[in-house]
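Team,

Forwarding the record for the chain on the shared tracking sheet. I've put the sequence and predicted structure together so nobody has to dig through attachments.
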Amino acid sequence: MKKTTIFIVLFEIATISALLYSLYQMSSLNENLYISSKQRLAMLQAADRLRHSSDDLTNFARVYVVTGDEKFKKQYFDTLAIRNGKLPRPKDYQALYWDLSPQERAKKHPPTKKISLDEIFSKLPFTKKELSLLQKSHKNSDDLVNLEVEAF
């Protein structure tokens, strides 16, 4: 009877230990999943910033060429300077920005720090292939910038 009781107690200790170890592993995996999800979101947002800035540049170029309004030319070159890290990146720049008045932009989107999209890309865990595709997209957008500036 004593051997059976000792065996059951040892079995329960082993089972509890295995369960605790499994919980620890699940917690660790959950934390890794959370970090990976945050990185993935940051990578998607960074890539979207390139697309968005290219769209903004094209729209400002079109409107400036059609209207001749210097406001759009300034917004064009400011967008380019922000993208290239020559002007500070506004806080929450991905949100509604250029449609706001300059006073509202200053209030809702204060400047943060100067950082180019290329620097943002380099700080994220993109694969070499992904980074290469982003660089190619950026180059294509810069080639379009040269055509748009000619149109001015």
